[in-house]
Amino acid sequence: MAPNDSVESNGGTRGTAVGRRKAARYIVPVAVAGVAAATIGLVPALASTGDPDLPKITAQQLIEKIAASDTQQLSGTVKISTDLGIPSLGGLAGSFAQGGGSGGGKGDSSADPKSRMTELASGTHTLRVAADGPDKQRVSILDSAAEYSLIHNGDQVWAYDSKSNEAYHATEKRAGTEHRAGQKSGHSTPAPDGVPTTPKALAEQVLKAAGPTTSVTVDGTAQVAGRDAYKLLIKPRQSGSTIGSVTVAVDAKSGVPLKFTLLPSSGGKAVVDAGFTKVDFAKPAASSFTFTPPKGAKVTEADDAKAQRKADGAEGLGIFPGAEGLGAGGSGAQDTKVIGEGWNAIAEIRTPGGTGLPSKASGDVPAEAQQFLDSLGDKVSGSFGSGTVFKTRLVNALVTDNGKVYVGAVTPDALVKAANGAS
Hints:
- By secondary structure, the protein is α+β, with helices and mostly antiparallel strands.
- It has a domain at 14-42 and 70-197 and 273-302: outer membrane lipoprotein receptor (LolB), chain A, CATH 2.50.20.
- It is built from ten helices and 19 strands.
- The strands form two sheets. The chain has a 13-stranded mixed β-sheet with strand order 1-8-9-10-11-12-2-3-4-5-6-7-13.
- The protein is globular, with a radius of gyration of 21 Å.
- The N and C termini lie far apart (51 Å).
- Residues 1-5, 8-49, 91-104, 175-189 and 314-333 have low confidence and may be disordered.
């Protein structure tokens, strides 16, 4: 078993800049429900068995092994279980991503990855993944009687929902990032930005966040998907974070993260388990990355869908009027700052127009979305005024009535304290 060697890893100012840039995109409760966890550089897990006898390695050496991994080809099965302590997002994914409704808008498609990949923020899912270099990836979400696939091949991106027989097609702009999240790693998958689908993508986000406030140690060995692995244990040195620990099982031979486990500081089961149950590092078949819409399938072109949503007034973050500027970056990003550091960092975001949450009474929120928000929120007050705290087991957010949002992997009390201090 490897010794419990430790090291401090400094993420530097680059990690802070990335956190500030991305935080502005996820100020709404759906982000708090899952995607914001990835935004702040936090992440997940899967249970393993076995205790192989491997050569000793330090934490620094193991981190370097992950960074040096040049694996470009793989295929396998990934199991992801997420327990954020919130209602299932399955029926609401379309509402949040498309601006209300569940695929009923003219510009909507049940195959649109922006809505379908949000489903990974809750429940247990089995994914089949494949990659062949930075330009060819495929991820499929497997259901009992259906399959949803997202395929990236060169500048072409296809998504297909077998249940509805709908396909979604986009031509990738080579300078863009919408469908190229994490492509520096050849085995990342073509999910929308902020939705990691492999242990590799999850591990990279956590290591970016590691710094002087983080303890990093080697915590023994494990067997994952039939392969020997070292366990990298990452824990906050600070108190007040909702994160208890993150464990990354790293393939002893290739340096590829095979499993990711995030435990909350409150105790109990893992918030997220994500790991390979089967993995093969051989070159996948070329047919894995080709797609032709089946006969009779409804095909939605990404540009046409975007234009229709804009015409319908549902472009951007939809049910949260005024948030479009934040979702697109630009001036919205300038209204964001970070309070505190490390695991206790809190993003303070000023919404355009200085308005609070829309409500069902105002006619701005669909009934099902309002029900979801009410199930998460608690009313709070302080010297900052009043607002609503949206809670999960991992990321919490305070939305004030005067148009500010405080979000982080910290306790609700920490958010209220930050808002009071900034008032």
